[in-house]
Amino acid sequence: PICRIRMRGSTKYMPKKKVKGFMALYFKYLYLLRSARQPRVRRPSYIMREELIRLKRYQQQFRYIQSNHIETAGDLTGRAEQIEQELLRLENERRPLYGLRKNGKEEELEEINEKIAQLNAAMKKLRLERNLCKRIQEDIPRVTAAWEKAQAGLVQKRQREQERNKQKEQNSNCCSQSHILKHLWYCNKHQCRPCL
């Protein structure tokens, strides 16, 4: 059954959930990588190209972090421990089935094989999830360092742009000085905006 909810008023002013922790870090870093993936005149830097190669892996990690609501390293290690416990439980459940399959009757053999196949499939999913948790734990320092480096690069780029804009402004305002006659010759020679 579909659950329908009727709301009164506008949903425009409803508070949105704040993204925090690992989720926020991955969200920002993926945004940065996606913007670098857009076609440009200049090629991205070597470091950025390496990170673009890892983009799919980071996207997979972000989806996992988001779907499991992981915000801190403690949440991630807790989830990894849960997976390990579940794997041990499934292994203990599967072990006697192997013994039954060896010594069991042929009528029960198909049923036992189906149970073993189901347990193996569940364990395969859990192992993939466990490996993903380990990769996230290994990649978090790299992503954090790359994000900080990218932020520092953006700050430097903005400062350079501001300096260029100041220089352009100074060059365009060179003719607005009080000694106009001296600058008339300069303006004619360098073809800047004429003095008035």
Give a structural overview.
By secondary structure, the chain is mostly helical. It has helices at about 20-35, 45-55, 55-65, 75-105, 105-170, 180-190. Helix 1 (about 20-35) packs antiparallel against helix 3 (about 55-65) and helix 4 (about 75-105) packs antiparallel against helix 5. The longest helix is centred in the C-terminal third of the chain and has 67 residues, at about 105-170. The chain is elongated, with a radius of gyration of 31 Å. The mean pLDDT is about 80.
Q: Report the β-strand fraction as a percent range.
A: under 5%
Tell me the structural class. Answer: mainly alpha
The first-to-last residue Cα distance is 78 Å
- In which range does the helix fraction lie? over 70%
| Number of E-state strands | 0
Task: Quickly count the helices.
Answer: 6
Q: What would you report as the Rg, rounded to the nearest angstrom? A: 31 Å
The succession of helices and strands, N to C, reads: HHHHHH
Q: Which sheet architecture does the biggest sheet show?
A: none
What is the average of the pLDDT values? Answer: 79
Q: Show unreliable segments.
A: none
The 3D shape can be described as elongated
Outline of the structure:
It is built from six helices and no strands. It is mainly alpha-helical and 196 residues long.
Task: Please specify the SSE layout and strand pairing.
Elements: H1 21-37, H2 46-53, H3 55-67, H4 73-103, H5 106-172, H6 180-190
Helix pairs in contact: 1-3, 1-5, 4-5
